[in-house]
Structures are given as structure tokens and as C-alpha cells.
Amino acid sequence: MSKKRGLGRGLGALIPGDAGDDAQTGLRQVPIASIQPNPHQPRSVMDEEKLAELAASIGEHGLIQPLIVTENEGRYILIAGERRWRAAQLAGLRELPVVVKEATPQAML
Asked: Which sign does the torsion angle of CA 97, 41, 35, 83 carry?
């Protein structure tokens, strides 16, 4: 019998189970109201139907992949994940997992 090959570690290897606040990874749970969209978001139009589908999925399964944000004066600005953020709002989530990164204005484009 051959052994299964692959990563085999699952998402838990990337994202710790107690995602409350992890100083090493920058992963933390933050109130959804403290997150702002990136003013330089290149995507100006979002498909409302697809957003509703994503919101239904997030409502059923939760947000699996954390948003990437930068912190600015106690608020968080999205670097990556605006569709997930908008869908999470539609799904009624109050807190979201985020990874906090330091970012220059250039990196946020």
C-alpha cells in the first residue's frame, strides 16, 4: 500500500487555531467596523450576484482566509480581501481574522 503524498497539514498549519491575537504572524481578530477599504482599490465594480454568493458561503463556513490589512491610527486599511470584507458585512459577521502587515503607500496600490 502506498502512502498518500501531499502537504497533509491543512489550513491549521498556516493559521493557528487560537486566532485571537498572534504577535508572530500578525494574525488577530478585529471588529469589522474598524476596517476601511483601500482608497486605491483597482477593482471599481464588483458583481453583486457573486458577492451575494460569497456572503452565503461565508455565512455557512465562516471566513477561511484572513484579510491582509495595515494599521493606521487604530483603524485597519485593507491591502487584500475587499470582496471578502464586503461579503462578510453582508453575512452579518462582527469580527474578522486579519493579518496585519506594515505597508508603504506604494505597496497598497
From this structure: negative
Q: How far apart are CA 70 and CA 24, in angstroms?
A: 15
| DSSP state letter for 21 | E
- Percentage, residues of the chain above pLDDT 90: 46
* pLDDT < 50 stretches in the chain: 2, 7-8, 10-19
Give residue 87's pLDDT: 95
What is the third-level CATH fold of 25-37+45-109?
3.90.1530
CB atoms within 10 A of CB 60: 8
Q: In the prediction, which pLDDT does 19 show?
A: 44
In whole angstroms, what is the distance from residue 78 CA to residue 93 CA?
17
Given the residues 49, 53, 60, 82, select the one marked as catalytic.
82
Is 82 one of the annotated active-site residues of the chain?
Answer: yes
Alpha helices in the chain (DSSP H): 48-61, 82-91
Distance (Å, whole) CA 70 – CA 59: 25
